[in-house]
Specification:
single chain; mainly beta; 3-stranded antiparallel β-sheet; 10% helix; 40% strand
Length: 140
């Protein structure tokens, strides 16, 4: 049985780039330790390519590619926020920056996060591994 999905509004920090994502009610996030993901520090939520639609300011989206050029990292040209990317390990999916999803509280909604081992990427090593876990605990 699959969980029902709902269309969620999303945008970059300044609101220039707006998009929607058809996402499950309970979001599953992850981080990655590859060079670009570590630099972004974003929590990513995956979805199929056809479940994401840019609804405003497509011309404000920049795209960054590197190394194998399989992953396409889309960001707002105005505020610089990473909005989403087409995944290298599954080019049939996008991964949305969770902070761009309206109504998400990244600290309370994602207190425990798996970290994918992107340094030893499955496309290079043939093995999909976890690098570890990140845990958020509010100060008393």
């Amino acid at each position: 049985m699959t969980e029902e999905s709902t269309t969620r509004s999303c945008s970059c920090h300044c609101g220039a780039v707006q998009f929607t994502g058809r996402l499950p009610a309970t979001l599953t996030g992850m981080r990655c330790n590859c060079s670009i993901c570590a630099a972004k520090g974003a929590i990513m939520v995956g979805l199929p390519l056809d479940a994401l639609e840019v609804t405003a300011e497509k011309d404000q989206l920049g795209c960054y590619e590197f190394n194998t050029r399989t992953a396409k990292h889309y960001f707002c040209k105005t505020c610089g926020i990473h909005c989403f990317h087409q995944r290298r390990d599954d080019p049939g999916q996008f991964a949305i920056n969770a902070t761009c999803i309206h109504g998400v509280d990244i600290y309370n909604d994602f207190a425990d996060l798996p970290v994918n081992d992107g340094i030893n990427h499955a496309r290079d090593s043939g093995v999909r591994r976890m690098a570890g876990w990140l845990h958020y605990e509010p100060a008393a």
